[in-house]
Amino acid sequence: MIELRNLTKTFENFTAVDSLNLKIETGEFFGLLGPNGAGKTTTISMLSTLLLPTSGEIFIDGELLSRNRQDIKRKVSVITQEYSMRQDMDMEEIMEYQGRLYFMPLREIRSRTKELLAFAGLTEHRRKTIRKLSGGMKRKLMVCRALLTSPEILLLDEPTAGMDPISRRQMWNLLRQLNEQGLTILLTTHYIEEAQSLCGRVALMSGGKLNETDTPARLIEKLGAYAVDELRPDGLHSRFFSQREEAISYLSGLPGSCTLRDTTLEDVFVEHVGKRLS
Amino acid sequence: MGIVTILWEKWREFIRDFSRITLAAMVAPLMYLIVFGWGIRNTMNGQPYLYFLIPGVVSLTTMNGSFNAIAQNLNVQRLYEKAFDQVIISPTPLWQFVAGQILAGALRGLYAGGIILFLILPVGTGLKFNAVSILILFLNGAVFSSVGIVVSFLAKNHADVPRFSNYIIMPMAYLCNTFFSTEQIPHGARELIAILPLSQTSRMVRSISVGEPARLYGILVLLAYLTVFTAIGLYFVYKKKNL
């Protein structure tokens, strides 16, 4: 279980994360959604100890996380937003370095590397240095590297950024499988569709604070399961209804161009976060 | 053991960049030896100046070799490649990372110094370099590797390490008992320069090279520098809020 208690991070006069309280249960697939500057990456960075909190605490399975807690860090793998790899190493070296950093036996590193690179379709590129790889390949390699150590918790910061739609779908399937096998996943993403498709629970974050935390279905239900979009001269306006009949009745009274559709998590996001931002 | 992992990483880097590392380690010291020692053909205390120069150049080569192997590389890994993030995230104890960097840097310095010693062999100077000289040069490399770690953590951008090198490392290379004796420097500055690690290394290596014993004091000074900079490096990796 991951627990954040009053987690706060300030940079000089700017508060990036403001008194965050959150519990993520073991085996959960949890999504952290928010616009740029919401504090998602800062939160992941604190969870991976790259940044130390200004105040507040992080507990993993009830143990206080710090940079010198090797036992806790062993359970966690992180896929950072940036390609955090030595550019002069090849894929196999990247994997071996990771395995060695996690004290894995060399034989296990080599067999798991072979397995994971084959799974990701990277075998033929295994001798290429990182600087020669495409963005998508680097991203896949980061996933392989994170999985090499068989973590219990996987932290993903925008894992599908820069991936083509096919690779993205492959990644989603992989993450779903891993979660079904019991891996706890915390994901930050800009792609609301990604969160809706994958996450059991999501938290909406803006200005360093959590606005709302629930399952995507309940968040949609709270807003209203049906949306009516109306195109006015000043732009698109949406209204939400919990009953389809209500939505139809409203729609029939509208003069201009309008549509009825199911509410999505993106609507919830725009309603909560967009309004706060504007 | 995390130290072995870091040594492995540095070994891979060494193998990959072997020719570049070797050439970079050779060019400047060879120029010093050729221009100052052979080209100008001076004498010092009745001996060829080259005999005075060689221990100093070997010492400064270990300093440069070690500092450059760590500072620039770690700076790039931390600020640009973000590869250092994976070390922080991993369960490898961070003190082992620091120790591995220092050890690898010291070995790289020793390699650079060793190349110069090998190249001057045909000159037949009769200067002595024994196990104690190697230990002193290793310690010197360890000190400047630890300085390299600290500088790389203080650096805010790519230019900061070369800047530090220009303002601190390069003046040391010229002033610290390498090209001329610190005895020739005016009081005040002399004492300040004499206490610097490279001055101590040059003095001790030079003493051994002419058959005199090295002073324990010099080794203690190097150990003191190593302790202080290692402690600062450890403070950064464990306590720095934003790495």
Give a short synopsis of this structure.
The complex is a heterodimer of chains A (278) and B (243). Chain A is α/β, with parallel strands linked by helices.
Descriptive report:
The complex is a heterodimer of chains A (278) and B (243). By secondary structure, chain A is of the alpha/beta class. Chain A folds into 3 domains: 1-75 and 151-213, P-loop containing nucleotide triphosphate hydrolases (Rossmann fold, 3-Layer(aba) Sandwich), CATH 3.40.50.300; 86-150, no CATH class; 219-277, no CATH class. Helices cover 37% and strands 29% of the residues of chain A. Chain A has helices at residues 40-47, 70-73, 91-101, 106-119, 135-148, 165-180, 192-198, 216-223, 244-252, 265-277; strands at 2-11, 14-24, 29-33, 55-60, 63-64, 76-79, 153-157, 184-189, 201-206, 209-214, 226-232, 235-241, 258-262. In chain A, strands 6-7-8-3-9-10 form a 6-stranded mixed sheet, with helices on both faces. In chain A, strands 2-1-4-5 form a 4-stranded antiparallel sheet, with helices on one face. In chain A, helix 3 crosses helix 4 (106-119) and helix 3 (91-101) runs parallel beside helix 5. The longest helix of chain A is centred in the middle third of the chain and has 16 residues, at 165-180. Chain A is globular and about 70 Å long. By secondary structure, chain B is mainly alpha-helical. Chain B is 76% helix and 2% strand. Classes of the chains: A alpha/beta (278), B mainly alpha (243). The A-B interface holds A 11, 48-52, 54, 67-68, 70-71, 73-74, 76-78, 80, 82-89, 93, 97-98, 100-103, 145 and B 2, 4-5, 8-9, 12-13, 16-17, 77, 81-83, 85-94, 237-243.
Question: Helical stretch count of chain A?
Answer: 10
The SS-based structural class of chain B is: mainly alpha
Q: Looking at the structure, what is the overall shape of chain A?
A: globular
> Span between N and C termini of chain B?
23 Å
Q: How much of the residues of chain A is beta strand, in percent?
A: 25-35%
Largest sheet of chain A: 6 strands, mixed
Number of helices of chain B: 10
Please name the two chains that share the biggest interface, counting residues whose Cβ lies under 8 Å from a Cβ on the partner chain. Answer: A-B, 33 and 30 residues
CATH topology of the largest domain in chain A: Rossmann fold
- Output the CATH class name of the largest domain in chain A: Alpha Beta
> How many beta-strand runs of chain A?
13
The value of Rg of chain B in angstroms is: 18 Å
Rg calc of chain A: 21 Å
Question: Can you write the helix and strand succession of chain A as a string?
Answer: EEEHEEHEHHHEHEHEEHEEHEH
The total strand number of chain B stands at: 2
